[in-house]
Write a structure and sequence with these properties.
662 residues; Rossmann fold; 6-stranded parallel β-sheet; 5 domains; 7-stranded parallel β-sheet; binds zinc ion; 18 helices; GIY-YIG endonuclease; 27 strands; alpha/beta; 23% strand
Length: 662
């Protein structure tokens, strides 16, 4: 092959391939898939070699400074995958390769694990598990990248299905990738995989040091480890003969990276499986609407686990109608009388309580405390956000605004107010109500330091805390056998997010939260407080009835043309200069409208739900259409026409298939 020039991309938001000349002495050493040091705009940067050629399109090219890797770190499969990602997520190839890279190390001692021949025996599957394994086994024989949606209630033994499917893949000399949400990558779960496949697991999470990361990456590359268990970026594992990708909790929003490249690990996994012929298992108790939709139309194979392996019954879920709390019962507390009573009973029996508060919503919404009606945009059917300064209601999708009404448009009561309770308020009211109880609080304020997170959980585990108050982080995967009561302070905060996925989030959260109760030998109880007791996401979560929830939610999505019936691209504009930002956003909106030849909906420009972060104002434009390719083309064309002078700079970023509206 011609080795005069190298085609190189860099880890900057510039989606272009640059040509560099290869010095004579470097021609043996250079190769596609290696990192190099290159001069770039007066700096020295890491570049990624994506091709070699005998010609360069321009006469004067710069020379490569050094070759950084002894062997290629990317094979053609990863190069194809990352190129696809750059196209799909409208970002630079180099940015994707940067996140897919192992750390650079000179020489590191190799980590050797003690190999043990004693393996715990495979568990005997329940009839439902056996059925699922049979179906997946058939798919694994085919080598044609079948996707399975494993829908199993909490505690139904999904992990055992993963383990036995992985065992089959390893028998055939292939490798497996297991993705877990970062928060579930606990030593316990790694131990569970490790004890079944001793010495063959490479863990991959944020607590690894650079050196450990490098060591694990080398073990995978050299075939010492053939299973990676890790967070998002484990999808780039350097396996040569991938047989299976498992994605646990596939509905989790943390699979979507929030900084560029804003990729969704599930979508990337499906593409990698397609390239390598691997099978995919998507496991969850609450499938994303997108995945269940694909299963219903036969694109994925659906397999279900409806019972818990230990024979325990699902916890009883009780809904408390908060509209009646003040008017009928004369109770002004944020705790209903029912919840107060159950907490006291629980403490008397020396059992533990989790109180859950959803604070995903950044902004306050407006709700009628008499009828539970939240005020919503008549065009987008998402909740309005209340701006106290202007006393106006804003829709963050289409920028429709109205005055805050004095009376409720549904029931004409005067009890229309904005809403929002913090964990601190819950904690202080709890101390007043139950002074003898030992209370712990866990939210982003108290758990910024890693230690504090494990300290609080450790103390709760040892029963040094009776009542744990927390945000969604306590809803996930934790197993506390002495917890017999879980209280949800307000299901409405999730239900009224300014996001079309609000109902889906509510169903997922309530199901997860309910799964925390009654993990031990005592039967669990769940109390959900809400102003919307009739809402389908609350009613179906109470009955643990996902298909019914799906049936209602998919109707709403179809009517308003939201995903999975469309794709969205969220264009966020940011600047310190609010006036300039508004002008630029308006101009971009007009250019988009003028260029729009396809049936693409352009919503906004509107202030983002989080209208100001760290002194920067934020606006957004949402594109909604059926084909992402056309939407990206429209954006590319329009952004190139939006020429703004550098003063009062406005930063524009794109999010393809956004998971949350921030
Ligand atoms: Zn009302
Ligand atoms: Zn709207």
């Amino acid at each position: 092959m011609a080795r005069e020039y190298a085609q190189i991309v860099v880890g900057l938001p510039i989606d272009r391939i640059f040509h560099y000349s290869i010095p004579e002495g470097m021609r043996e050493e250079i190769d596609v898939g290696k990192r190099v040091m290159v001069p770039f705009a007066g700096q020295r940067l890491t570049g990624y070699v994506v091709g070699l050629s005998s010609q360069a399109p321009i006469a004067r090219v710069k020379e490569i400074g050094a070759v950084l890797d002894p062997f290629p770190i990317f094979d053609s499969e990863i190069l194809q995958l990352t190129r696809w990602m750059a196209d799909y997520y409208a970002c630079a190839w180099g940015e994707v390769l940067r996140v897919a890279s192992p750390p650079r190390m000179k020489r590191v001692g190799r980590k050797r694990e003690e190999k043990s021949i004693e393996k715990p025996p495979l568990l005997i599957p329940t009839p439902e598990q056996a059925e699922a394994l049979k179906l997946i086994g058939k798919g694994l024989e085919k080598n044609n990248s079948t996707t399975f949606l494993l829908h199993g209630v909490t505690g139904s033994g999904k992990t055992e299905i993963y383990l036995q499917s992985i065992a089959r893949v390893l028998e055939k000399g292939k490798q497996a990738i297991v993705l877990l949400p970062e928060i579930s990558l606990t030593p316990q779960i790694l131990l569970r995989f490790g004890s079944r496949f001793w010495g063959r697991i490479a863990p991959w999470h944020s607590r690894l040091s650079r050196r450990e990361r490098f060591q694990e990456w080398m073990r995978m590359r050299e075939g010492e480890a053939d299973i990676v268990v890790g967070a998002r970026s484990a999808i780039f594992a350097p396996f040569k003969n991938l047989g299976l990708i498992v994605i646990d909790e596939e509905h989790e929003t943390s699979y979507k990276q929030t900084e560029s490249p804003k990729y969704h690990a599930r979508e990337v996994a499906l593409e990698r499986a397609r390239l390598s012929g691997a099978a995919v298992i998507l496991g969850t108790a609450t499938p994303s609407l997108e995945s269940y939709f694909q299963a219903r139309r036969g694109k994925y194979e659906l397999t279900e686990l409806t019972t818990r392996v230990d024979g325990k019954i699902m916890p009883e879920v009780e809904i408390v109608d908060m509209r009646k709390e003040l008017t009928v019962r004369g109770n002004r507390s944020i705790f209903s009388l029912r919840l107060q009573h159950s907490m006291r009973e629980c403490l008397e029996r020396k059992e533990q309580v989790i109180l859950f508060l959803n604070r995903r919503g950044f902004s306050t919404f407006v709700l009628c405390q008499k009828c539970g009606q939240a005020l919503r945009c008549k065009y987008c059917d998402v909740s309005f956000t209340y701006h106290s300064k202007t006393e106006r209601l804003h829709c963050h999708y289409c920028n429709y605004q109205e005055e805050k009404p004095q009376v409720c448009p549904k029931c004409q009561s005067g009890q229309v107010g904005y809403f929002g309770v913090g964990t601190q308020k819950v904690e202080s009211e709890l101390r007043r109500l139950l002074p003898e109880a030992r209370i712990g609080r866990m939210d982003s304020d108290t758990t910024t330091r890693k230690r504090s997170y494990s300290q609080i959980l450790g103390s709760f585990q040892r029963h040094g805390i009776d009542i744990l108050v927390g945000t969604q982080m306590i809803a996930k995967g934790l197993d506390f056998p002495r917890v017999t009561l879980v209280g949800v302070i307000s299901a409405d905060t999730a239900l009224n997010l300014a996001d079309f996925r609000a109902s889906e989030r509510t169903f997922q959260l309530l199901t997860q939260v309910a799964g925390r109760a009654g993990r031990g030998d005592v039967h669990g109880q769940v109390i959900i407080q809400t102003y919307n007791p009739e809402h389908y996401s609350i009613q179906t979560a109470r009955l643990h009835d996902y298909p019914n929830f799906y049936g209602q939610e998919i109707k709403f999505r179809r009517e308003l043309g939201y995903p999975p019936f469309s794709h969205l691209i969220n264009v966020t504009l940011q600047s310190r200069d609010g006036n300039r930002l508004r002008k630029v956003a308006g101009k971009l909106g007009r250019i988009l409208e003028a260029n729009n030849r396809e049936a693409i909906d352009i919503l906004g420009p509107a202030p983002a739900p989080l209208a100001r972060i760290k002194g920067k104002w934020r606006w957004q434009i949402i594109l909604k259409g059926s084909r992402t390719g056309e939407m990206r083309e429209l954006l590319k064309e329009s952004l190139s026409q939006l020429k703004e002078p550098a003063s009062g700079r406005v930063r524009i970023s794109l999010d393809v298939d956004p998971m949350g509206m921030l």
